[in-house]
Structure formats: C-alpha cells, structure tokens
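Crash report, auto-generated. Payload:
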Amino acid sequence: MKPGHLFVVLGATGDLTRRKLIPALYHLMQRKDIDQSVMLAVARTAIDDEAYRAMAREALIDAGFNEDEVARWCNECLHYQQMGIEEGAATLATRVEELEAEHALSGNRIFYLALPPGAFAGEIRDLGEAGLNESEGWTRLVVEKPFGKDLASATELNQTVHEWFPEESVYRIDHYLGKETVQNLLVFRFANTIFESSWNRDRIAQVEIIVAESLGVEGRGNYYESAGVLRDMVQNHLSQLLALTAMEAPSAFDPVAVRNEKVKVFQSISPITSDDVVLGQYQGGEAAGRALKAYRDEPNTDADSDTPTYAALRIAINNWRWQGVPILLRTGKGLARRTTEIAVTYKPEPVSFFKSMRQNPNAGPDVLRLTLQPEEGFSLTIDVKDPTERAAVKSIPLSFTYEEEFGAIADAYETLLADVINGDQTLFVRADEVEESWRLYETLLDADLELHPYPAGSWGPTAADRLLPPGSAWSTS
Amino acid sequence: MKPGHLFVVLGATGDLTRRKLIPALYHLMQRKDIDQSVMLAVARTAIDDEAYRAMAREALIDAGFNEDEVARWCNECLHYQQMGIEEGAATLATRVEELEAEHALSGNRIFYLALPPGAFAGEIRDLGEAGLNESEGWTRLVVEKPFGKDLASATELNQTVHEWFPEESVYRIDHYLGKETVQNLLVFRFANTIFESSWNRDRIAQVEIIVAESLGVEGRGNYYESAGVLRDMVQNHLSQLLALTAMEAPSAFDPVAVRNEKVKVFQSISPITSDDVVLGQYQGGEAAGRALKAYRDEPNTDADSDTPTYAALRIAINNWRWQGVPILLRTGKGLARRTTEIAVTYKPEPVSFFKSMRQNPNAGPDVLRLTLQPEEGFSLTIDVKDPTERAAVKSIPLSFTYEEEFGAIADAYETLLADVINGDQTLFVRADEVEESWRLYETLLDADLELHPYPAGSWGPTAADRLLPPGSAWSTS
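Recovered output after restart:
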C-alpha cells in the first residue's frame, strides 16, 4: 500500500478525465493497489462538488462499476474546484491545503494536466507561482501529449517545466507505453534468450511498426490541420514503439537505464531524407464497412489542404545490432482496418532443403507479431512439415492473446496512473527523449513533400512500396 | 502414382502385420498415394487365401474402414502362401511369379521381414538362394528391429544382408522415424532460422530425450530378459532421436546426405563410461493407475534377474555445436506416465532484470518440447510479463498438436511403407549407422553396473539425478 495523496486533475471536465482517468483511479482504489487517493477535479466550468460527482458517478456506472460503491467513493474522495483562465492558482493552492487537512493527507500531490497543449506552459507557471510545485510530501506533474509541435517548441516547454519541476517529478504520458504488449516487449526480449539471441541484423530481415486506423479525422479537423500525421502519431507513438523494439539491454530495469537506451536508439538513427518518406491523404471511400468523406471534405479542413493523414517511413538505425535492417513505420487514417502491431520478419534459411515443399503457398518467412490493437497479443509464425501431404511445408502461428491467457487486463491509463502514484518513471517519456524524437522528424515537418492521395479503405498509397527492400512485402496488408 | 508392386510380408500372421502393415497398406491404396499393390502374406501356418483374407478383413474393419471396400480389396489384392521353416524359398519364388503374371506386375517387389530377429539372417539367405534378391523390376528388403544384439551381431547381419542385397535396397525400420514430430524435427530445425541460430552450445543448457512407458514388461519376459533396456530402447529409438536432434544441416535433403550427418553425430560422441549411466529395475507399485508386479515377479523373468528396465545416460557430443552441453537420455518401463519427448532447455538470460519478478514460481527457463507420445505436438515455453500483477513474469507455452492443427495424421508405419514404395531411404537406418549406434553402448551392454531398484509409478531411481548438471532439474517428471 502506497501513502495517500491528492490527485489534482486540471481540465477535469474533458473527455479524457471522464473516460479514462476517473475509472482508472477508481479501479486502482478498488483493487487496493493504492492506499488513499483524494481527487480534486479542476476546470473552468462553474459547478460545485455535487454536480461534478453526479457526472463522475455516471461515468463510473457506465464503465460497469457497482452503483453504491461508486456513490460512496464519489462522496468521500471526489471534489471539484472552479478555476478561471486568468486567475492564477492561488485559490487552487488554498483548496489543496484545505483538502489535505480535511483528509489528513501528508502533502503528496499529483497534478495531471488534462488540458489542450497550448495551455501546458501557462498552467505550469501558474502552479509554480502559487507554490504548488513543492510540498511537505512529494509533488508530481503529469503532462499529456502532444509535448510540443516541433523541436523548438518541445525544448521551450521543457525549459518551462524545469523552471518549476525537476525532471524526476515529471511524467510525460504516451499511453501506448501503458499497453501490456509494450511492457511485455521488454520482458519478452530480455527474459528469453532464444529471441534476444536472434534479435539483430544477422537474423532479422525487416522490422515493421504499423498503427492503422480505419476511422477518419472524425470532426477533429481543426486540430488535425495543425498537426498532421507526423505530429499526431509518428513522433510519439511510433517512435516509442521503435525505441523499445530496437533498444539494447539496459544496465538495470529502472527509469534512468531504460530511458538512456531509448535515447541511444534515436541518436543512432541516420538522418531521414525525403527519399525515406511517403506521405498520403485519404480520399472518399469505405473503410472497415463505413463510408468516409475525403479528408478535404471534412468539417474544419481546408478544401485544398495538404495535411498528410498517412505516412510511411524507412528508418535506418546505424548501430551494430541494426545496421542494414530496414525499419518500416506506417500509420494512417482511413485505412482498411484498425490494427497496431510490431512485426519482425526473420531472414529465410540460408539454404533451403525444402524448396519444392515451399512451392506450397502456405509457407513463408518466420514472422513475430506483437499486436497492441484491436486486441493485445503475440504470434510467432513458423514453418512446420504439413503431415497431410508427403512433402509440404506450412506456416502456422504460435500465438496467445493477453485476454485469453490472463483474463481482462488493465487499461493503459490504469497502468500509467499506478506508476505515477508509485513514482516509477520507466514508462514515461524523458525530456531528452522527447527532444530527440522531435529532432528525427524536424526536416520533414514543414518540407514540401509530395502528397499521395489514397482511397479510404485501402492500405495507403502504393507509392509507399518503394520503401520496401527488393523482393520484400508488407507483413500486414 | 507409383508403379505397381508385389508386397511380400514374411511373418504375416503376427501382430505387427495385422495391426500395422495391412491397415497402412490399405490406407495408402485408398488415399491413392500408390498405384497397384498386391500383397502376398507368407507364414508357417497352414491356411489358404480365404482364411487369411477373413483375418485381414476383420483387422481392417476393426481399424474403422468400410466393410464392402475392405472385402473387395482383400479379394482382389491379398494372397497367402504357406512356407515351412526348413523349406527354402523356392515355392515362394514360384508363387511370386504366378502372382506377378496374374496381376500383370512388372517385377517390383518388397520383402518385409516381420519376423523374430533370430530368423532374419536365415530368411535373407533363403530369399537370395531362391533368386528373389533381384528381379526385372526393383527389389527392396525391409528389416524390422532389433537389428543385431550388439556390434558383432549387427555387423554379421549386415554382411549377410549385403551378400544378397545392395545397401540401396535395404530399409531398416525404426518406426519412431515415421512419426510426424520426428520428420518435422528436420523441417522445423532447417526451415526456421530463429531456432537453428540458437540450436547450439551458446544458447542451449541441456537436451533431454525421454521415452517413458507406464507399462511393465507385459508378458514379454522371455524377450526382455535377453534384451534389457539398452538393447530394447536406447541403441535404436533414443539414439535415432538423438541423431536427428543433434545433426548438422545436411548438404541436401536426401538419404545419403541426411544419414551421413546422423553417422557423424554418433562418431562425435565421447566414449560413454559407467559414470555416465544409471540403470534401474522396477519394483512392484502402481503406474498410471494400474498395479504392476515387480519385474522379477513377472512370468519368464529370473527371480534374481539383473536385467535393467530403466536407463539414464549422459551423452557428450564432442563437436563445435554441442561441446559441453549435457545430452540426457532417459527411458524405462513402469514409470509414472507414458510420454516420449525431446526437451531442449535454453540457457537463462545472462543478466536478469526481472529477478524480483522471477520469485514468481510460475517462471522458468525457456523449454522447447517436441512430443511424440501420447500425442504428437510442439510446445515452446517462454516468459512473458504477467499483466495481472504489477511486476511478475510468467512462463506460458506456445504450442500446437498435430491433430488439432492438421486433423488425424498418418500412422508411422503408413509413412514408412509409403517411403519404401517410393524408394526413399531417408527415414531408414543405414548399415554404418546401425553399427555406429551399437558401438556407442558396446562397453555398457555386458558391464557389471549397479542396478538401482525403483518403485513402479515413479520417475526411476533418484540415483539418476547425479547425471544432471549442478543446479539443473529434469524437464519432465
């Protein structure tokens, strides 16, 4: 049991708080993974504790929790504080101290910025100026993504953060890091010699990281016009998956050592040129059984927008483990189906005794797939003799899903909140990491790259095929 | 479709012919894997074609085949020839030619010796002297196990065989080689770089080959007294599994190249000393839910018999791939349960980040199991993060069984008969191979080794534990 704390959410009337943070915190309390957690929801809306509790109760009951227990928790542990935009955090500081007194808390505080990115810097300054950057206990700052919109803005935001909060107190969220598959990636790689011993350029032909969405921009045209796919997905989620897939074994399984190795991956990546990138934008079509308008026809997008909704990138990691292995990142909206996976394709055997057997189209190279969405799972496809024929080879998958194997698993936010409460930064993005990942894509963000249209429901522009090694194919399509 | 042939079984009234050979041949015909096969059953019993067909029909109907089709096949394709012990094969030769004329066969012949081993040499001589060692078509000789009872007798039997039949016509049966798992072992090893690249002393901690029977000697005391476990199981089945597990990649997937590599394994094995062996004999007890008398109390065994029914051996293969890796063979009667498997235990990770997680007793080293009995299957146990706890590692098996994956699979005898008919010797034991495998155990066969009693239903004498590397355990027990 961890010591009690006050969990302050700034931006508490937003969707994230309702759908993710409140259920995660509540479930952690229920599971008794944490001791006492008092939540103070903060937002601009002029409502009182009771009104906020009613909203929270509804969210929790929707999430399937028991009505009576939910009501008790909301009454005992949930408070609301209105805070105007220009107001500063003095009122908040007073309320924080009152609640700590009321609940006999020892001053441990979490400030969770569930705010639009433009509000991060101002809010951090407000907290600092009101003296909320330190307390009798520990104080932790959680910052949602996106962290900056390019290298310069990320660096500036880091400077603001560090003016008030030491890096050891800062938790930059990338919720992909809270997924079981992602956490397991490190255990899987470094607890099983059979895989780690072949996790390199000698044995691996290509690595693919794909985050495919079948949805379009879904009414978020305003945000998306200013972001585009590189900022929305590549710099954060895909880069994080890449770092964990490619990193060397850390000297210890702790936040410093693990994140040092992730930064080294980014630093080993050769400059990404326009030759290594194919961008696209979806046209009208049908994706996963649902009609989609062209991106340019969505509300709040320019009729001649050149914002990319698809990117494929060929990354070269210039170190001893990966030199020469193409690392292919692909992500887009309006694609054929929703899937997020890391696919590692092994080299074929150097000499094939089974050439004639392999005429069987059911056989192929060994592929290891770590799937994050739609369900978290693991699959290793290997070739075995097909006993139904005299001499045939067939690829079969050795697989498991987390849900089948372990039952329902925790939501990524629950995992990450527990880590914040436990003071474990391993699965959060460090200041230098976020800057290095922006640096990778810096020259591409505002470059004048060709934009390839692709029909919604496809796997993106065929132009991306030129990124593949000769004779190779996408493992997912 | 292969050209027609005459399939002559010598010893055709025995159990093997009834339970295995007739159903296998019939099923191959049914599957149209072979063209025309006319069977001539030969034995001492004075019965006619009709009486033999009645027996065969019953055997096939017992095996689940359709009654009408069975009757038709028996009438059209099945014949019987009585042959006395001292008679020579002249009558047989005449009958063979008559049948070939009757069925318009081109002289392709298989002689299958389903006889007691003591009769092999005499029968081969008889066949040769009657001119049945060659024909207008091809002639193939199939010899059942055991092939010899030590190096000298095996060498002598090989000489007799080669007096009449060239090695290219000789098919020495070890029915373990017809199992899907065993055939798949080569495909699995040499079609999947991920496994072959770690199939060596750098990554593998130990290799175990276990053939455990829960049955006792089951009325075969006479035979067993003269054989013992080394002759009954170790020299043949376990040594064959060992050779396929340990061999280098052959230069081609053909009988010459594959068997060259198997012989090299035997030649690389360091002399096995009495330190490397633990023998045992089962006492009374209950094995797999069934009461067993002590071996010495079985019919036709000596009351003070020192025939071993259990052997554990530590083998050292002195080559670049395996030097230093203990290869542990274990086999016995009256053990806890029936299982045949090859278990490859990988080395633990050199540095463990998950030490605390590993206090979880559900985690262990990665083990690859290739199971032959009771059902043919494959299982790779790996460690993954247990998502139900904050920081725990759990071993889970990635597995398949051939039956689940491919439906009912062919009996080993069906596979092997098809190979004889197709003229493929890959899965049969070559003359030099059988001699080299006898040579391995030569000094142990009549040595005065301590005999450890063990209770029926156990995993054998605990004395065998001294063969394990320090800190290691049996993977199956």
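Post-recovery validation: Chain B has a mean pLDDT of 93.
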